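Hi there, hope your week has been kind to you so far. Do you reckon you could talk me through the fold, stretch by stretch? Thanks so much in advance, here it is.
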Amino acid sequence: TTNSRGGFYLWMDRGQTTKGRKARIESELMLVDIRCISFWYYMNNTVDAQLNVYIRDPRSDTYSLIWSNDQIHGSFWVLKEITVRPNMTVYGTNRFTIVYEAVVGSKTGDLAIDDLTTRSGNCLSTTPPQNM
């Protein structure tokens, strides 16, 4: 997404797995405060795949869904920003993680995620889809 030859992204090989299988990546443990998480995602020709983002309470191992998408976007990357507020976490805990999850639908199409970042404070804006 940076339009350079350097770097890597995460891609789910849907041709090598069965419907309903999941792939997850989890952030490091963070203190509860207002945070902006951002990432780029690519969903091309995906008939019934899904991309989900959760807050996980590591003490109770509970997941709270904060964003989900199952829409096809075409052959371009989309930037998503989400402001995570303390009231979105499970009360009584002071640490949490962010979990990104891809769920396999059919065996066609591409699903990828890139440039996962987290910073303190609110997200400043949401950028519309960008052709890459």
Observations:
- The first strand starts at residue 10 and ends at 12.
- Residues 127-132 have pLDDT under 50 and may be disordered.
